[in-house]
Prior knowledge:
alpha+beta; 5 strands
Amino acid sequence: MHTFPVRVYYEDTDAAGIVYYANYLKFAERARTEALRLSGFDQSELMQSEHIGFVVRKCVCEFLKPAMLDDLLTIETRLSDISRVSMTMQQTIRRGPEKLVTLDVKLAVVGKSMKPVRLPENISKAMRKMFNH
C-alpha cells in the first residue's frame, strides 16, 4: 500500500467548506502519480521514452463522509490487478481512521495515438514489487 497526505485548502471546498466531490478524483490522481514515481517512473518521461501513458478507463467512487476545510487526509493506494494493457487500483481517502471515499480505478495503457498498448515488463515488475502483488 502507498499512502499520500493531502491537506484540504479553501480552493478544494464549496461555500459550506465541504470538499467538492470532483476534487476527490484530483487527490486520488495525485496519489497514483506519486506511487508510480516512487516505483521509479515519471509519467512525462514514460511518454517520451516508452511512448506510453495511463488514462482512466473506469472509475467507481463511493462517497461515505465529507471532508472539510483544513482536514488532513490520507490517500491509500493498492494495486488490485495488473494485466498486459491495464492496472486496477483501489484507493481509500481517510481522515484519520475515518473512511471518507473509496475509489476503484482502472487505468488503460495507451500509446501516443491514444490506442491501447502493452504495458512494458519493467513497469509491470516495478509496480508488482512496490505493491507486493
